[in-house]
Structures are given as C-alpha cells and as structure tokens.
Design a protein that fits this description.
Length: about 375
C-alpha cells in the first residue's frame, strides 16, 4: 500500500504520519508476519535509535556506546566465528636486545670501539655496517640496550655517552658498566662481560666511550641497539629491572658523583639539558628505579638509596639497598619508588666508600 503524501493514516492501534513514521500503540506492540519472516528491502536501513540496543530473545547482543557499536552478552562463539576471529589476530614478535625490547630487528644497529679508551682519551664508536664513526642521524635516536665490554683491569669501568665531536670527551653520560675487581690485589686480570644498560643517544651526537680510571676500556667493545625515528616506527620497550617502560622519553638516568660513606651522604644528579644538577622528584611525579651500576669498597659494605628532605642529607626513608663483594663493581636489578618533592640521596652502611660514579636507572612518570 502506498500512502503518498495524502496526510496521516490512523488505523488504531497503528498510526502512520505524513513523514512515513509508523507508530504501533499499546503496552506490548508487535509486528508479525504469517510466514514468520519480515524482510527489509534492499536500499532500506533499519535504524534502532537510542542506546538500549537490539534485543534478541532475552539478551541484547548489540548496543550503542556514544556512536560506537558494542558487542556484549556473548557467552559462546560457534567454531566458524571463533576460527575467523583467531585468524585475524596477530601477535607482535618481541626481540630482546639486553634490556631493550623491539618489534622489528631490521632497525637494529651495532656499534664497536675501534681503539682502547681511557678517562683522558675518549674514543668514538663506529658502525659495524659502514666502518665509519657513528653519528645519530637527523630526526633519529639511537636506543641502546646491551653492551659487551673488555676491560684491561679489574678496577676499571666503562662509560658510554654523547659527545659533540669525534673522539671527544663525553658531555652527557648514558651508561656505566664493568664488574671490577674481586680482591684488593692490584694485579687483578682483565675482564670481559655483557651488561643490559639502557641508553638514549640523540640526533647529531657521536657515541663515545671512556674508562672511569687510568686503565683502558679495550677493543673489542660492542654496543647493541636500534636506530629509529624520534617517534618510533616500531614498538619500543625498555625492561628496567622488571618495570616495562613503553616511552623512552620517560627514562631518567641519575648519577652520584660523590663517594658516600656511612657519615657522608650525597644527592643524585639529573641531566637538565646542559649540565648535571641535584635531583628531587618533581611535584605530581614519582621516580621508579630499576637498575643500579656501582663500585663499592669492602666486603661488608653496602649502599642504601632513599629519600631526604634536603640535599646531601640523612635519609628519611630507605628505599633500596645494593652491593656485594670486595672492591667490586656490579650492575644489579633493584626496585625503588621515590615520591614527589623528595631528594634522592645515597649513603653507605660502613665507613668505607661507594666509589664514584654510581648510576641509577629508572623512569619518571605521573604519580
């Protein structure tokens, strides 16, 4: 039946307006067909207004959530639907480069040290693919997660950081590593090892290496990571002592340049863009520490890092503890949560010193 535009038709309890709106009155209105099937012709959209959804039997499998279709109240899926859903799902591959986790190894880059480096003679690292001194490309970052080093003496520790020049001294530290001596004997032999160190190297900078003492960081020493855009094209994560950081911009390295004992406390420093300054956790933030790299004196000596109300002051709250062995340098996974507006300070448990530098790796995030 065609109603045209001849006005309103009212066949109580059915009402059809001139606009074509069909209204069925009554407490339980029903639309039925002798065949049991009601067909909506091609080209016609069946609209279910409101947010109550479309009811099937006693359930509402589809509902509107502010313009988005929501599938709900589904207890089971038959085999064909299950297989279809599973076939569309993809699991992103994870590749581990030390503490760095990436989804695509085609961005991987390995750097090597072509000559020995000391504290007074820094050396730039080279790209193994090109054989040339490596400079981070414009618009890129080099994210490092693993270092394999060779130290010519147990007392030495390696440092890698940014520099503005070829073979220039490090201007912005990124990592410190090395197991150091196992006894006070000065004849402690050379040491080689691998360390899961996080590092972020920015565009236009050389990646340079030094040693913390007069001994050498030897070649071959290798640094492994990925070179990606500032906004990465791939999934990037850092495992900082078990805390998974999904945004490398949240990484924060703190360094203690003093030598604390049980009577001498020092505050860790942060990089402010041009220099290292004493660090207190900003308002509405927390600092979560996950790794510490240190060199500690005496077998029974240990380090404690905690919160203080002022710089270089007694700890008001012990947060984490580390250290083992005699005159030993190590990297340990730790866990510590430092609260807003507190200084991050360090102290030793005995009168023997924790040697400089001590590196604390973590993230600064919203509280």
């Amino acid at each position: 039946m065609s109603l045209g535009n001849r006005g309103r038709f009212n066949f109580d309890p059915v009402n059809v307006s001139p606009e074509g709106v069909l209204t069925i009155s009554g407490s339980t209105p029903q639309l039925t067909s002798e065949t049991g099937i009601i067909t909506v012709p091609t080209g016609i959209t069946l609209a279910v207004p409101g947010t109550d959804g479309l009811q099937v039997g006693s359930s509402v499998p589809f509902a509107d959530d502010d313009g988005a279709l929501t599938l709900q109240n589904v207890d089971t899926l038959e085999d064909t639907t299950t297989a279809t859903i599973l076939s569309k799902m993809t699991t992103e591959t994870q590749h581990h480069i030390g503490c760095l986790i990436v989804s695509d190894m085609s961005y991987a880059k390995t750097l090597y040290l072509p000559a020995d480096a000391t504290d007074s003679s820094a050396k730039s690292m080279y790209d193994v693919e090109t054989g040339e001194a490596y400079i981070v490309d414009t618009g890129k970052v080099f994210l490092a997660g693993l270092v394999s080093c060779y130290l010519d003496h147990g007392y030495g520790r390696g440092r890698i950081g940014e520099s503005t020049s070829l073979n220039g001294q490090i201007t912005h530290d990124q990592m410190c590593f090395g197991s150091g001596a196992t006894s006070p004997d000065a004849s402690t032999p050379a040491f080689g090892g691998t360390f899961a160190c996080p590092g972020v190297f920015t565009a236009g900078k050389h990646v340079n290496a030094e040693n913390t003492g007069s001994y050498s960081l030897r070649t071959p020493t290798f640094l492994y990571g990925v070179e990606v855009s500032i906004v990465p094209e791939i999934t990037i994560q850092f495992d900082i002592g078990g805390y998974i950081c999904e945004d490398y911009n949240e990484l924060k390295l703190l360094i203690c340049f003093g030598q604390p004992t049980n009577n001498t406390k020092f505050t860790f420093h942060e990089w402010n863009g041009s220099s290292w300054v004493n660090y207190d956790v900003p308002e509405s933030k927390v600092y979560i520490a996950g790794k510490v790299s240190y060199w500690i004196d005496y077998a029974t000596n240990r380090g404690i890092i905690g919160e203080s109300d002022t710089e270089d002051a007694t700890l008001t709250k012990n947060v984490l503890c580390f250290g083992k062995g005699w005159i030993t340098g190590q990297m340990e996974d730790v866990y510590g949560r430092f609260t807003a507006e507190k200084w991050v300070n360090i102290v030793a448990t005995t009168g023997f010193a924790i040697r400089t530098p001590t590196y604390l790796y973590g993230v600064e995030i919203d509280a």
